[in-house]
């Protein structure tokens, strides 16, 4: 994933604003926990477990109380102004926290942790609702990947910085903590001033009901059929993440027999894994919403989690981080935890993107608020799950981690069985990328939602796979019935949603049934691809479009996207130098260019016009490839 978005004002100021906020959140929260554990408990004799659970509860409670109101604010206010106001709230909280750290006012610090949780709860809805206003639909996956990466790296750095600052003694340590909290908050306020305007999606007066509506928002979110899978899926990710991170100190203490440094190292491995998973997701998605990564991510979490649960305990004596780093088993454990995080990145980024794209603009922040509330519920459920497994049932950490691995594995398998097409499409895209040096242009011309027809020249038997893998939306495509019914590949075409068609000479009524299936797909809001030439080109040129295209558009007038393929003529799946598939492959990783043209509105796409458009796109694509290769194609 290149860093182009980080150089643009429409994304970079917001990215750094939210990253600095996540850093300060975790710096403050972890400094507080360390001060309570190592200063307040010995001084006042307080109960450590009670304090830690109280602190966790004070931070999560605002997500129940204020997330719904945060969604209302984000829908009714300019999101740019709302972000700035919330950053000022963070600054005021950090100034008060600096004073409380300096004078060691631990009760005030706990109250300020609640305030920081409130700021985070209000910031959550606007955090993801603002992205679709500043980024194109094809950029959302990349934007969400960067946000996830920035968040987890900030969590890691904030946690590590808290340990360093808390280790400083006396007035020097208190001054360093206080200064850091305030300086980071000030930088966040300054950076937020550069965020572009993001007008409200709902007009009217903002209702002042900060404590009401939580269950109503959650009910509305779960009632949205297209958004509900994303909300539940993301919350399951936070359930797993909370379980792993909550039990990590105990795992290090009882299994690794390491010190606090080992906790930080394994936490870093997990955070880096999530970041790498987000980057890999952006790379594999290529600007599309690639839901096929969700079950793959769950399977990676499941397999890695089960392997992690199968690790043996280390030596009984306490080991330092330096000693652990010299052990192969510790590196293996770190790698497995990083793979759990990597699977989490692959799993979560498409779901966040789905939540943004599937939400109506005027209710998007409300849906994100519902997500935050459900996340908090699942995180509390993770704590209850840990208590039941470890304390009530008195099972081991190995058993708990095995349960997490099996649950992720079962979720991945269930998603694949329920809808295998997205994962299959992803595998097709990966296969095409392995076979060809494929470049695409104009993918933004494919409508983000609603029915559409894609028409393209037909060069080779790989055309459907190339188009299906490269198109930003899943494609249904028509194909000859004899090929469709081939026993070796029938299962593949059936899963891919191919629409078989046969001539009336061989199957009376076959064309009619195929057209009815195309019509059903279009009326369901799907994208259907047609090769209007009706056969492979015998000479590499675009040939006359057949009347079947007119029949499809007469039944369902939908936008038509012309497309053209260049670079596949001469491959073993084309008719050059002999019938397709009868020659040995002679080219590996050939350059292929796929170009999508501007869509022609519904009702304005006669067959001859489309043929001219495809010819023009093909000619331009050939010329572009010819310049790259230094000669005619």
UniProtKB/TrEMBL annotation:
Its main location: membrane. It is a multi-pass membrane protein. InterPro entries: MFS, MFS_trans_sf, Plipid/glycerol_acylTrfase. PANTHER family: MACROLIDE-EFFLUX PROTEIN, MAJOR FACILITATOR SUPERFAMILY (MFS) PROFILE DOMAIN-CONTAINING PROTEIN. Residues 452-568 form the Phospholipid/glycerol acyltransferase domain. It comes from Salinicola lusitanus. This is MFS transporter. It is found in: Cell membrane. The chain crosses the membrane at residues 27-45, 51-74, 86-103, 143-166, 172-195, 229-250, 262-281, 293-310, 330-352, 373-392, 398-416. CDD domains: LPLAT_AGPAT-like (cd07989), MFS_MefA_like (cd06173). Keywords: Cell membrane, Membrane, Transmembrane, Transmembrane helix, Transport. It holds the Pfam family MFS_1.
């Amino acid at each position: 994933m290149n860093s182009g978005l980080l150089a643009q004002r429409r994304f970079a100021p917001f990215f750094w604003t939210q990253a600095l906020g996540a850093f300060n959140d975790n710096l403050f929260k972890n400094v507080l926990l360390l001060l309570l554990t190592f200063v307040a408990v010995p001084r006042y004799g307080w109960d450590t477990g009670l304090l830690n659970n109280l602190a966790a509860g004070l931070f999560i409670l605002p997500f129940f109380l204020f997330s719904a109101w945060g969604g209302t604010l984000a829908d009714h206010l300019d999101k740019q102004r709302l972000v700035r106001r919330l950053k000022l709230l963070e600054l005021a909280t950090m100034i008060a926290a600096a004073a409380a750290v300096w004078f060691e006012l631990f009760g005030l610090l706990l109250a300020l942790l609640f305030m920081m949780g409130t700021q985070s709860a209000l910031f959550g809805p606007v955090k993801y609702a603002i992205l679709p206003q500043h980024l194109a639909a094809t950029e959302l996956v990349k934007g969400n990947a960067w946000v996830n990466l920035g968040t987890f790296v900030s969590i890691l750095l904030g946690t590590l910085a808290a340990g360093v600052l808390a280790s400083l003694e006396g007035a020097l340590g208190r001054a360093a903590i206080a200064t850091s909290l305030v300086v980071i908050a000030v930088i966040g306020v300054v950076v937020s001033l550069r965020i572009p305007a993001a007008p409200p999606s709902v007009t009217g007066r903002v209702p002042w009901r900060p404590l009401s509506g939580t269950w109503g928002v959650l009910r509305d979110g779960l009632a949205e059929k297209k958004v509900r899978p994303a909300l539940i899926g993301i919350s399951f990710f936070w359930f797993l993440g909370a379980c792993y991170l909550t039990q990590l100190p105990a795992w290090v203490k009882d299994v690794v027999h390491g010190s606090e440094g080992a906790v930080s190292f394994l936490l870093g491995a997990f955070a880096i894994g999530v970041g790498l998973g987000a980057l890999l997701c952006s790379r594999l998605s290529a600007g599309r919403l690639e839901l096929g990564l969700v079950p793959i991510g769950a399977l990676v979490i499941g397999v890695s989690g089960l392997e992690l649960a199968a690790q043996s305990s280390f030596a009984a004596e306490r080991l330092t981080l330096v000693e652990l780093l010299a052990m192969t088993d510790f590196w293996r454990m770190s790698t497995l935890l990083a793979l759990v995080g990597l699977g989490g990145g692959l799993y979560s980024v498409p779901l966040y993107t789905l939540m943004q794209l599937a939400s109506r603009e005027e209710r998007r922040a409300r849906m994100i608020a519902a997500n935050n509330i459900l996340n908090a519920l699942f995180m509390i459920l993770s704590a209850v799950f840990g208590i039941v497994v470890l304390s009530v049932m008195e099972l081991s950490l190995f058993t708990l981690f095995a349960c997490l691995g099996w649950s992720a594995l079962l979720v991945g398998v269930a998603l694949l069985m329920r809808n295998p097409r997205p994962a299959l499409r992803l595998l097709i895209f990966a296969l095409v990328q392995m076979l060809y040096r494929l470049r695409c242009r104009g993918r933004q011309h494919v409508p983000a939602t609603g029915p559409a027809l894609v028409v393209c020249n037909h060069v080779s038997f790989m055309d459907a796979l190339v188009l299906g893998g490269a198109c930003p939306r899943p494609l249904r495509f028509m194909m000859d019935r004899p090929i469709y019914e081939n026993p070796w590949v029938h299962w593949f075409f059936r899963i891919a949603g191919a629409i078989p068609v046969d001539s009336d000479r061989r199957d009376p009524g076959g064309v009619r049934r195929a057209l009815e299936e195309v019509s059903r797909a279009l009326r369901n809001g799907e994208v259907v691809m047609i090769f209007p030439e009706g056969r492979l080109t015998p000479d590499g040129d675009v040939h006359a479009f057949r009347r079947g295209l007119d029949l499809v558009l007469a039944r369902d007038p939908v936008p038509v996207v012309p497309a053209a393929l260049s670079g596949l003529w001469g491959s073993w799946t084309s008719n050059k130098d002999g019938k397709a598939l009868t020659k040995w492959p002679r080219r590996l990783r050939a350059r292929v260019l796929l170009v999508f043209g501007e869509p022609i509105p519904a009702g304005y796409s006669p067959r001859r016009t489309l043929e001219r458009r495809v010819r023009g796109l093909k000619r331009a694509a050939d010329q572009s490839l010819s310049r790259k290769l230094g000669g005619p194609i």
